[in-house]
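Run Phasin domain-containing protein through structure prediction, thanks.
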Amino acid sequence: MRETVRRAARPVVSLAERWATLHEQAAELARHAGLAPEAISAGSEDFLAALKNAHGWQQDLVWQGVEDIDAMMQPGLSALQVIAARGQDVAAPALALWREYHLAREAVLDVIGLSRTRDAA
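Sure, done. The structure for Phasin domain-containing protein is below.
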């Protein structure tokens, strides 16, 4: 059976897996930006539990948010790797991408009630 068919049969778990992958990419982005990798409060298990309890519209928004973050991270990380391979400093563009990622991630978490910024207030 094709991988996409298997993922379609279990969309919430598939989405949680993509979420974890985005955080692996974020760790690489943090290294480029000169930041320590961030320990997020909404781990994979918390994220999966919140997704399972979410309404369909919330799951749809989270899916779109993850797609949007991925669409930003893939070319951004590729560009940073090219710049770094040329021996140029990537800290400033990496930090800009980190900020965009951070805001997008918080928006996704807020949809399912796991926002860190709201909890911190």
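Confidence is low (pLDDT under 50) at residues 4-9.
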